[in-house]
Amino acid sequence: MDKLISKIIEKETPIVVGLDPRLEYLPQNLLDKYFKQDISLETAARAILDFNIEILNNIHDLIPAVKLQVAYYEMYGLPGLKTFIETANYAKSKGLIVIGDVKRNDIGSTAEAYSNAYIGYTPLYREYAQAFPVDMITVNPYLGTDGIKPFIDNCKRNNKGIFVLVKTSNPSSGEFQDLVTTDGYKVYEKVAQKVNDWGQDLIGNYGYSSVGAVIGATYPHQLSELRKLMPNVYFLVPGYGAQGGRAQDIMGGFDNRGLGSIINASRSIMCAYKNKPWKNQFNSREFGLASRAEVINMKDEIHKALISNKTYF
């Protein structure tokens, strides 16, 4: 987690941009360029890579990290997974931390295989290889400690990080996460306690462990509560922007140094060229510039909220 926090301090912003592309997000000129002669999974994957690279070229100097949701690449099959890898490598070449939003989990050797694929190394006879070039991933805690341990082990061995789903941003998250257990705690609070415990041996120089938590921006009250329950846990906070989360909603996730949370926005940045005010200032060929303008706007909103809450970098 120290690598991510150092980047946040260097860039003076706690923003992670989600590159979760769908073809309908791409401008028409890019679609025409790639699909004029051929309609295939390979063509779609190439178009998406071009889209991702243009956005990265315009925002890499502003942000510490990107988050790649693997589902948006898997849907294009093997060509899509190749684009996932190429996007991750390009982001790393620009000095960015890469979070793989893969939400993996299983038990025993299967969890170990998932972990090795993303934050470990795959054995190849007498050698080892890295399958996916990411620094951190999201994981699902539903199977308990033995499903999480292989990921924690790779965090220790390889200086990697994980974010465990605790209180997610979707409307129906409360169906299970808000259920009350026999000792009076809600399920998400019990998960939070475990997450804090899991990371105690991995606390770095900034006071945060390599075992982080996913907490939705759409639940600001719970965000503040969970900050108290998990004092050593860094938060990945989705739901900002298109999902309705606002700057004031996320303040409960920060400590008095302006650390403690990294805020994700995806559609609001990828599709900025389609939305006001940027669609009136940039044409569709300038989608990268519109994304940059939206990142700057988001950065300003968060900084103003941090200052008003007397929380600083």
Question: What number of domains?
Answer: 1
Radius of gyration: 19 Å
Beta-strand percentage range: 15-25%
Number of strands: 10
What is the ordering of alpha helices and beta strands?
A: HEHHEHHEHEEEHEHHEHEEHH
Please list the strands of the largest sheet in the order they lie side by side. Answer: 1-2-3-6-7-8-9-10
Q: Report on the biggest sheet.
A: 8 strands, parallel, barrel
Key traits:
single chain; 313 residues; alpha/beta; TIM Barrel; eight-stranded parallel β-barrel; two-stranded antiparallel sheet; 15% strand
Structure description:
The chain is α/β, with parallel strands linked by helices. It is built from 12 helices and 10 strands. It has helices spanning 2-11, 28-35, 41-59, 71-74, 77-93, 108-119, 145-158, 174-177, 187-198, 220-229, 267-270, 287-308, and strands spanning 15-18, 65-69, 97-104, 122-124, 127-129, 136-139, 161-167, 211-215, 235-237, 261-265. The strands form 2 sheets. Strands 1-2-3-6-7-8-9-10 form an 8-stranded parallel β-barrel, surrounded by 7 helices. α10 links the parallel β8 (211-215) and β9. The protein is globular.
